[in-house]
Design brief:
Blueprint: H1 2-21, E1 35-36, E2 40-46, H2 60-79, E3 83-88, E4 91-93, E5 102-112, E6 116-126, E7 132-145, E8 153-154, H3 159-177, H4 201-204, H5 215-221, E9 230-235, H6 249-265, E10 271-277, E11 280-281, E12 291-301, E13 305-315, E14 321-334, H7 351-358, H8 360-377, E15 385-386
Parallel strand pairs: 1-8
Antiparallel strand pairs: 2-5, 3-7, 3-11, 4-7, 4-10, 5-6, 6-7, 7-15, 9-12, 10-14, 12-13, 13-14
Helix pairs in contact: 2-6
């Protein structure tokens, strides 16, 4: 009898007491805010002959691809899931990387927002004989988590992390203020498909005579922007994609640099170095099986360098075509010893070519200001340091 009365009383006690004192009950759909320290990832790559040109200088597109991979690792670790590249701020190459050097890439999450995050990437080169380590380039990558979800916030601890945390918000505000319009495909003024006659390779790029003519004659024959038009077609295979089947942003930039280099080579037959690549916003993603068409054309020439305009188009399995992004790449003309060489002048003819050339001075000034700002972030950029043996 005692237990028969005691058990109901205990049940009533545990049922009514929480209601009386109003104990908060955690809801199942409540989002738990999580904070993390900045996630840092480091990867090293030995520069081999497959990564370099005939002089043993690493391709800028290959460096950009590695930067994107390292940034993607930090993004995935912070988001605890797959992420894709949404945008890349301007990247300036301060020093070339040579064959048989070690390329050290470090990526760190600076700040995160609702479903996106900014990741700073530093590229250093280590001389295997002397142990000297020099910073070569630096850039900021924006990644978005897919499917979109609330990301953990970043809790900076050191003074440098706190500075990058606040500066990341300023850079994000500038990106949001800059409205990105859908670019138009980069077609030459007289595209071969618009010609009624036979597509003659001698006249397609404004050259006269045979391809065995000396270098000076071929340079003098090129005068217009359309003469440097270059087109590259690639197919997105599984090795070019992440786990979601979306093409790596670094792979797209690698193809862009590859196409821009050939366009610049049609203006001057010398060695080249990639000086910088302007900010890139990936308006649409490309997926496995898509056909990627990269078009490039020299938009302006300066004393020792040129600016190349590049557009990227994608075609899916159903034949639907779309422009995914564009970009401006600066290329410097050098000799076999790395000394700068003069670049021939180039002339714009069509309305689009004139518009691009007229805006080149403003873009060049912006690059110079960005470079100075970058050097203020990295005061010891050009000062080599010894790799510690500890």
């Amino acid at each position: 009898m005692y237990f028969q009365f005691t058990i109901p009383i205990i049940k009533l006690f545990f049922f009514w007491i929480p209601k009386i004192i109003d104990v908060p009950v955690k809801q199942k759909d409540e989002v738990k805010q999580v904070s993390k320290v900045p996630i840092k990832s480091t990867m090293s790559q030995l520069i081999r002959s497959v990564h370099t040109d005939s002089r043993g200088i690493a391709f800028g597109g290959q460096i950009l691809a590695w930067m994107d991979v390292c940034a993607g690792v930090s993004a995935k670790r912070h988001a605890n899931g797959p992420c894709v590249t949404a945008a890349v701020d301007a990247v300036h190459f301060l020093k070339p990387i040579h064959e048989n050097e070690i390329c050290i890439i470090t990526a760190c999450v600076n700040r995160s927002w609702s479903s996106s995050m900014e990741i700073g990437v530093t590229v250093e080169t280590e001389n295997m004989e002397t142990g000297d380590v020099v910073i070569c380039c630096f850039g900021f990558f924006t990644f978005v988590a897919l499917p979109k979800r609330q990301l953990p916030s970043v809790t900076p601890s050191s003074m440098r992390e706190r500075r990058r945390y606040h500066e990341a918000q300023e850079r994000r505000d500038r990106r949001l203020r800059t409205t990105k319009e859908l670019p138009q495909p980069c077609y030459p003024y007289t595209h071969p498909s618009l010609d009624s006659g036979v597509d003659d390779p001698k006249t397609r790029y404004g050259r006269s005579g045979s391809f065995s003519e000396n270098r000076t004659l071929r340079i003098e024959s090129i005068q217009c922007c359309s003469d440097t038009y270059t087109e590259v077609i690639e197919i997105v295979f599984p090795e070019h994609c992440n786990s979601l089947g979306i093409t790596f942003g670094g792979q797209i930039m690698k193809w862009m640099e590859y196409c821009a280099t050939m366009a610049a080579n049609r203006l001057f037959r010398t060695y080249m170095l990639i000086a910088s690549i302007d900010s890139i916003t990936f308006l649409e993603s490309t997926k496995q099986g898509d056909i990627i068409t990269v078009r490039a054309m020299v938009s302006a020439s300066y004393t020792h360098s040129v600016e190349v305009y590049v557009t990227v188009e994608a075609e899916d399995v159903n034949g639907n075509q779309r422009v995914t992004n564009d970009g401006w790449i600066s290329i410097v003309s050098v000799d076999e010893n790395g000394f700068k060489l003069p670049v021939p002048k180039i002339k714009a003819i069509s309305t689009l070519e004139l518009a691009r050339q007229n805006g080149s001075a403003k873009r060049k000034l912006a690059r110079e200001q960005e470079l100075q700002l970058l050097k203020s972030y990295l005061p010891d950029t050009l000062s080599p340091t010894k790799m510690s043996s500890k």
